[in-house]
Amino acid sequence: MDHARDAHRTDLMTITRFVLNEQSKHPASRGDFTILLNHIVLGCKFVCSAVNKAGLAKLIGLAGDTNVQGEEQKKLDVLSNEVFIKALISSGRTCVLVSEEDEEATFVEPSRRGKYCVMFDPLDGSSNIDCGVSIGTIFGIYMVKDEGKPKIDDVLQPGKNMVAAGYCMYGSSCMFVLSTGTGVNGFTLDPSLGEFILTHPNIKIPKKGKIYSVNEGNAKNWDSPTTKYVEKCKFPTDGAPAKSLRYVGSMVADVHRTLLYGGIFLYPADKKSPNGKLRVLYEVFPMSFLMEQAGGQAFTGKQRALDLVPKKIHERSPIFLGSYDDIEEIKALYAAEEQK
Q1: pLDDT tens sequence across 235-275
Q2: Residue ranges of the Fructose-1-6-bisphosphatase class 1 C-terminal domain (predicted)?
Q3: How many CB atoms lie within 10 A of CB 58?
Q4: Which residues, 6 or more positions from 291, have their beta carbon under 8 angstroms from its beta carbon?
């Protein structure tokens, strides 16, 4: 047995240790956020385990119900939703929960209430489960305005008011990416320890990227700025090399790649979905928050994504997010279109 090597393994920066270190920088902190995050991490470990054995456990396939978005629910969707609802309520630190799978927000009973509101997509990209493509959980956290009287307005805030956001990607490895408003850090699950270990400290997106990510099957329905931008990616007129297209169709996987390698992820509005397709609270806001914290930008085609004020919990929005310079280009095209 290699004792020196085993001793080194105990000196790892786990996600719990990382969050406790952050907590120690705020002397007034009571540890509520740390407890909440531990419950989110536990939920992610549970879902990761379920995803890994989904085919064996007959979890793949449809549960027979349709969720509020009109999408047929997978068994894993239903399970993941239940796991996160229970984990968040049992933390005793939440008061309002908004899930992609539930039509109405969940208000936690007064005896188990805390000061945080959590919006989450328990299993994003779930249509890809059957073919083994990366899927994930996305979450965003707000602070309630009045702990004694939580209201739906507590979650209908602009994304810039979030205190934290992140996602967990279940792919070739299980990775948890988190921002508490002071940069972005990535943790990878070590299955032998059952712990998330800090593997990607202080993630910074490259200022300009070589990849664009969009569903080109919708091209005939796009507006002029999006069409021009994608055309420029493929046929640049300034002598620059063409950008590469990479599109998984699972938002967590596409945004994760964009965050690490740079480039741009687009899900524009089109004639078929005039308000865009991605949901503001638990897809657009958390990913935009992470992108800005990593030095990138997020834009809706009209404004900075995090300035958007949602009116409904399942509201949708177009989104362009990624490297700073790439988003500047798409912003310039929309500005030029407005001046016409």
Answers
A1: 999 888 999 999 999 999 999 999 999 999 999 999 999 99
A2: 205-334
A3: 9
A4: 205, 255, 258, 259, 297, 298, 321, 322
Q: How far is CA 266 from CA 227, 300, 327, in A?
A: 11, 10, 10
Q: Please name the residue that has the structure tokens 């657009």.
A: 284
Q: Which of 17-26, 177-186, 254-263 has the lowest average pLDDT? A: 17-26
Distances (CA, A) of 151 to 23, 83, 95, 307: 27, 23, 9, 20
Q: CA–CA separation, 14 vs 296, rounded Å? A: 26
The values of phi and psi at residue 330, to 5°, are -70, -35
What residue ranges define each of the domains in the chain, with the CATH number in brackets? 3-202 (3.30.540.10), 211-339 (3.40.190.80)
- The residue behind tokens 């177009």 is 318
DSSP states of 2-71: -HHHHHHHTT--BHHHHHHHHHHT-TT--SHHHHHHHHHHHHHHHHHHHHHTTTTTT--SEEEEE-TTSP
Burial class, 285, CB count within 10 angstroms (exposed 0-12 / middle 13-18 / buried 19+): buried
Provide the whole-model pTM: 0.93
* Residue 99 in tokens: 């899930």
Q: Determine how β-strand 94-99 pairs with β-strand 113-124.
A: parallel
Secondary structure of residue 86 in the 3-state scheme: helix
Residue pLDDT, tens place only, 54-102: 766 666 666 666 676 766 655 888 899 999 999 999 999 999 999 999 9
- Count of CA atoms in the C-beta half-sphere (13 A) of 67: 22
Contact 148, 128 (CB under 8 A): no
